[in-house]
Amino acid sequence: MTSRATRLLGLSLLAPLAFVSACDDAPAREPISLAFAATVGDEPFVCGQTFTGLGASADQSLTIRDARMYVHNVRLVTREGDEVALRLDEDAFQHDGLAYIDFADSGIAGCEGNPETRLVINGTAPAGDYVGVRFTMGVPFETNHDDASIAASPLNITDMFWAWQSGYKFLRVDGASVGLPAWRFHLGSTGCEGADPAAGMVTSCAAPNRVEVSLMDMDPATDTILLDLGALVDSVDLDTQTVDTPPGCMSGATDPDCLGYFEALGLPHGAMAAGTQRVFRVD
Description:
The protein is mainly beta. It has one domain. It contains 4 helices and 20 strands. Strands 3, 4, 5, 7, 8, 10, 13, 14, 17 and 19 form a 10-stranded mixed beta sheet that branches. Strands 1, 2, 6, 9, 18 and 20 form a 6-stranded mixed beta sheet that branches. The termini are far apart.
């Protein structure tokens, strides 16, 4: 055997060993579950229950019958401030990095939506010292305008799809106040344009309306991420609506009734610049 052939044989034998060594050097992954819950101020959310002391006047009431949302781009934050992507498990509630959270149990009298709740995001990440969580509430642009009737779960939930905007509802909260028995808040992208937006052919949206959330000083393994529906409505009038607008807010870019909701979520609206969200917090 020539010396060149001998060298090639040696390299071929070393290659698998190098691959095994690289695999051994990869950090071990561990399962991580992020717990979610909904509240109305300091009270636990109970579907169909009427909550009082709400709104900008702090004297209005709201009966909430449905509360659901989509979340993606979930990252864990290390003590050094680095972000590590949480690799989401695949199941009926999670697919391709997207998770569906459902706070309302339609099995309870007065509730709407799906018959089961989902209050957790399951995934894996390298073992580490994590002190925070960041995520985006909403559906990625790349899948936001797909056909819900043929989409994989959880994007096949058709009542989370906005036919008139050809996109998904990122957050859906339905209920009733004294003055607005059909009150609802639906958040999604608006001002979407393309060759045929009605058919899902969208190239851009003037108002993406995805909410960036950063929660620090928490232990992802033991703490709970709270969606505070009381904070969502603490700057709005729950009992009145502007003429020729829907009751509550459907994310209309020119609907003045949306201003308080968007301010709570840290989103820009009209002349109002983006701020810091106060709807999500840690328990």
